[in-house]
Amino acid sequence: MKNLSIKARLVIVHTLMMSLVVIIVLGILFSISGNEIDANVRTALENRVNESYENIAYRDGILTFNNDFIEIQDGIYLSAYELDSTELLYGRLPYGFEYNLVFEEGNIREIAIADATYYVYDMSVPIEGYHTIMIRGVVSIADAQREFRATLRITLILLPILIILTALVGYIISKRAMRPVKRITDTVKEIRSSHDLSKRVKLGKGNDEIYRLAHTFDDLLSDVDSAFKREKQFTSDVAHELRTPITTVKIAIDDILKRDDLDKELKEELMIIQKKNDMMAKMVSELLALSRADQGRLEIKKEKIDLSDLTLMILDSFKEMIKDDDIDLLADIDPEIYIEADEVLIMRLYNNVLENARKFTKSKISVALKSSDDKVSISVSDDGIGIKDEDKEKIFDRFYQADTSRNKEGSGLGLSMVKWIAEVHDMSIDVRSTLGEGTTFTFITKRI
């Protein structure tokens, strides 16, 4: 039951409870009805025999019976006998019934003959001008209960239909009752997929537990949305404000380094400061770009681009950057691969992934661009330190660094930018890594 949805559990419980109630009620009704029918048959038999004398007369030395005596009413057969013998004077008996059954006056008996069971009632009746005779009434219990049994069979046939209808009604009721819960779930899924915290459940007016839950959830979303907006604005403002002093420091250091009177030690220290300043400038640039992306202010211009030529151009530039690093750059690029993308963002994606590989590789970086049918695959591999399994889901988080002691120059923002660029281009990302052997980033997108 724990694996079933609440709606399914409600339907099952509702169906079982309703079915149990119906079965109990029907059982009680049929029990009462059976006893009532039995009592009515006995009463009708007794009354029919008691009233039968009205249909007998003795005139002119002849004992006569009218047609009502021989007529079968309510399944009751009447017959008349001489008092001291079993000689039948007049009447009818059920087929197969014993004619010579001993009389037992004033007592309704249950007699089983062959495969049939009967109620038998005997009564002596004095006839004016004639002597006393014996009147016998016989009724078949099976005939009397046939209608009851027919009703029982119909009920047993209709019971499964009734259970199915009960389940259907329970499903409809449960579905309507759980509709607000489904709306809450759909809203959460939509927020997760679109990352849009402005969406709300908006169930409307209501005061039950689910409506109060939805209203509380909407209030929580409003608070979280406001907090995220303030954080994004703060990040954007800080990044923007830092650009000016960083640029000023860069210009100042560049001017100082141009002087001829600097000693070697001071020049080396200034170059270290310049390198750190450049790292900070890059970090601020990434942070500002991500902040604008979060706020929807980063303009994306998608167009048809030759990804093969762009990749070769980027690799040529990257080769110049690593010429002093003793790193081999291997490339396997299929020609004339076109995609629809923002060229500047794709260049940024390449640069960030390649820079990440450069930080951790030992001696080799491999880049492959392949196409198959309508799919394009971009792979960047290194033979570096690798990534732990528990860190794979976190490497795209902002400012996350799996091992800061081995991260030479990272800010923790490069792969976050890569993830965002991949998302806006509908690219899937696959990261495969083995500790001590290296890591491969693979991007899959659509070819045009």
How are the secondary structure elements laid out?
Elements: H1 6-51, E1 56-59, E2 62-65, H2 67-70, E3 76-82, E4 88-91, E5 108-113, E6 116-126, E7 132-140, H3 141-194, H4 209-257, H5 264-294, E8 303-306, H6 307-321, E9 328-333, E10 338-341, H7 343-360, E11 364-372, E12 375-382, H8 414-424, E13 428-434, E14 438-446
Parallel strand pairs: 9-11
Antiparallel strand pairs: 1-2, 3-4, 3-7, 5-6, 6-7, 8-10, 11-12, 12-14, 13-14
Helix pairs in contact: 1-3, 4-5, 5-8, 6-7, 7-8
Please sum up the structure shown.
The chain has about 450 residues and is an alpha+beta fold. The chain contains eight helices and 14 strands.
Keyword list:
448 residues, alpha+beta, Beta-Lactamase, Helix Hairpins, Heat Shock Protein 90, five-stranded mixed sheet, 8 helices, 14 strands, 21% strand
